[in-house]
Design goal:
With about 230 residues, the chain is an alpha+beta fold. It is built from eight helices and four strands, in the order βαββαβαααααα. It has helices at about 30-45, 70-90, 110-130, 140-145, 160, 165-180, 185-195, 205-210, and strands at about 15-20, 50-55, 60-65, 105. A four-stranded antiparallel beta sheet has the order 2-3-1-4, with helices on both faces. Strand 2 (about 50-55) and strand 3 form a beta hairpin. Helix 1 (about 30-45) packs antiparallel against helix 2. The two termini are about 35 Å apart. The model has no long low-confidence stretch (mean pLDDT about 90).
Length: about 230
Amino acid sequence: MARLPRLTLADLPHHVIQRGNNRQPIFTDRIDRERLLALVAEAAPRLGVALHAYVLMDNHFHLLLTPSTVSGLPQLMQAVGRGYVRWFNDRHGRSGTLWEGRYRSTVIQSELWMMRCMAYMDLNPLRSGAAIDVAEFAWSSYGHYAGQRHDKALTPPPQYWLLGNTPFAREAGYVELVRRGISVSEAMSLTDAALQGWALGDATFVESLQKTTERRVIKAKAGRPVREPAP
């Protein structure tokens, strides 16, 4: 079966996952991680892409972004991917591919999934055993939204501003949101949607998306299509 093109639409949030080849590490230390973040921070505004959140694990990373054009996201991932692999190989004396094929991504519904996706990303280090406290993991955007530091590369999504009327209230609200966490089924939905490329949202959202693209936005139901009875 032919591989579907990526679902990339302007002015909608996209959850992106990029994995290392054979699950090998793509970061070895602080310098590697800082380099990737610097590449994203440089390319995103130039290509009209808003970076909302990120988490950098040892062998993969997640990004939550909103492109202003259809071409912005793929151009960003191409620029970051090529630039980082070239730099990483030179620094570590290696050659060849670093990524497990192309990046995976999908569109998510802002109202339902934006904040859940951010919490999902912040909790990734806990799920993997890389940290025991989200506040202690330096390589996610949690510290920015929790008021621990300022990251000028990040653009808070509209839903973040609804957490409170003051910076302190919003930071406290975000800390509480992440503390409450998300369900196992929600985490699975976020992972599967990104890896398989299916839109994540309610029926109305999915229906509206399908009107804008010829590419299927959700998985077809199993079974043969129902045929109309013969006249």
